[in-house]
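Customer escalation, tier 2.

The customer says the design service returned an amino acid string that "doesn't look like it belongs to this structure." They asked us to rerun it and document both sides in this ticket. The original structure tokens are below, unchanged.
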């Protein structure tokens, strides 16, 4: 195992998009962005509907491990102007459409959406619904911190149609919690989980992270034991992404406090073993679900998708990203909003799409995205060796990974073995033409293990 790890534990993308953000090279102008959004809306709204991601960046305190786009404040006066700006941005999009969008998915991400009061979240969702049709089978979900989620939040969001709640747990160990500045008790997590179920949420997800400072295999075992007592429907078991050059908060502990690659892999293997033993199914990269959960069913029937929000059951091709740093995807182009709250708000107030970077996909990008999505979502894909891009795949890496039994190739079918699942990012890298053509000189991605 040690040899495999030292060979494959290299910096690599997480493939929530292809091309990955550092390789976006052809940003759409504002006018081109409008055209891509409109064309995608006209092509897909009636058939598949649209998805909306809304970024709510505020948190009351900084968890020092965090890699998300956040703004730390205890001033709740920021809520109202931010919600007004989001609705103004939504209007910029709906003014482009000549009919009402059919909304199949809304995801509130962050930051901490439950930083906002229930009344303000209601204003936001009602404002979105006013200019669209929320489909009867729409999937409405939110991320929340157990430390700021009240029963009133859950009642209000349930009334608005939310049925999926994702709670940030990370780790229950007191030493780890203190180091990452995130003290949260089992009792708090249990209370919010119980409330959500009583109120009528049908799916509760927990985010866990392995590879955090001072974590040990024993502390992971204790955390998973406690998680199993509450039996969430889904679990995201993330590898800690250490990117202190982007997130200076991560410098509050040192690299010496972090488990090395071998130990980190043992944590993953032990956590996974315990979750499988407890009846969870492994879905895509880093995700587990109870067998009757929608994501597990979608995985079995090969209907799983992946977008910037992670794994989803919704196949929408048009995803509108609202809020600071959000990424929109028209299927033909990506566009990312400004990353600083004030600059984002100023652009929207001036009536402009607040996009600051993006990428218009080429035909080749679209083919390679389909292949990479297949590997990430289904652990298998069909290799079309007649495409010109095939000459640039890393055949050498594929051969090595086959020898190491991470993949099996029969004819044109590539399959990821169960031994290969922890290395799914490495497998995708063999097909990432942008990365193969322009190997970065400095480290821009977190390690794959
Ligand atoms: C927006 S937060 C979740 C909601 C809420 N803010 C909370 O913390 O409870 C999204 C999730 O991203 C994951 N995450 C954040 N920073 C990470 C990092 N550096 N490496 C791996 N996962 C990370 C955490 O599991 C976190 O729960
Ligand atoms: S982990 Fe969640 S609560 Fe903590 S800083 Fe990040 S977004 Fe905020």
């Amino acid at each position: 195992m040690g040899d495999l790890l030292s060979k494959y534990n290299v910096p690599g993308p997480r493939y929530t998009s292809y091309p990955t953000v550092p390789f976006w090279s052809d940003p759409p102008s504002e006018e081109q962005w409008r055209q891509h959004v409109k064309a995608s809306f006209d092509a897909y709204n009636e058939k598949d509907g649209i998805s909306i991601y809304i970024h709510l960046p505020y948190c009351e305190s900084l968890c020092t491990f965090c890699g998300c786009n956040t703004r730390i404040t205890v001033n709740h006066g920021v809520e109202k102007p931010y919600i007004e700006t989001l609705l103004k941005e939504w209007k910029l999009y709906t003014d482009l459409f000549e009919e009402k969008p059919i909304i199949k998915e809304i995801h509130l991400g962050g930051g901490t959406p439950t930083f906002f009061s229930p009344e303000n979240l209601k204003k936001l969702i009602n404002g979105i619904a006013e200019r669209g049709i929320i489909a009867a089978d729409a999937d409405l979900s939110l991320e929340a911190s157990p430390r700021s989620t009240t029963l009133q939040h859950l009642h209000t969001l349930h009334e608005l149609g939310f049925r999926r709640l994702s709670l940030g747990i990370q780790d229950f160990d007191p030493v780890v919690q203190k180091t990452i500045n995130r003290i949260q008790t089992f009792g708090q997590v249990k209370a919010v989980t119980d409330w959500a179920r009583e109120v009528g949420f049908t799916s509760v997800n927990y985010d866990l992270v392995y590879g955090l400072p001072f974590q040990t295999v024993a502390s992971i075992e204790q955390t998973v034991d406690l998680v199993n007592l509450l039996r969430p429907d889904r679990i995201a078991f993330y590898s800690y992404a250490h990117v202190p050059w982007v997130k200076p908060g991560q410098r509050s502990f040192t690299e010496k406090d972090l488990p090395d690659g071998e130990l980190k892999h043992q944590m993953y293997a032990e956590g996974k073993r315990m979750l499988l033993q407890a009846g969870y199914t492994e879905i895509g990269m880093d995700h587990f679900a109870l067998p009757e959960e929608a994501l597990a069913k979608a995985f079995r029937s090969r209907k799983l998708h992946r977008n910037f929000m992670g794994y989803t059951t919704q196949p929408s091709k048009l995803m509108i990203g609202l809020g600071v740093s959000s990424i929109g995807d028209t299927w033909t182009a990506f566009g990312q909003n400004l990353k600083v709250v004030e600059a984002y708000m100023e652009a929207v107030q001036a009536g402009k799409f607040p996009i600051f970077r993006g990428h218009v996909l080429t035909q080749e990008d679209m083919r390679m995205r389909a292949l990479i999505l297949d590997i990430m979502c289904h652990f298998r894909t069909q290799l079309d060796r007649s495409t010109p891009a095939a000459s640039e795949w890393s055949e050498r890496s594929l051969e090595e990974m086959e020898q190491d039994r991470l993949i099996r190739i029969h004819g044109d079918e590539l399959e990821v073995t169960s031994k290969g699942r922890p290395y799914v990012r490495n497998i995708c890298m063999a097909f990432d033409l942008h990365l193969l053509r322009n190997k970065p000189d400095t480290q821009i991605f977190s390690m794959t293990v």
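Tier 2 assessment: The sequence is consistent with the input. Residues 363-437 form a domain with the Arc Repressor Mutant, subunit A fold (CATH 1.10.10.920). The chain has two domains: 17-360, 363-437. Sent an explanation to the customer and offered a walkthrough call.
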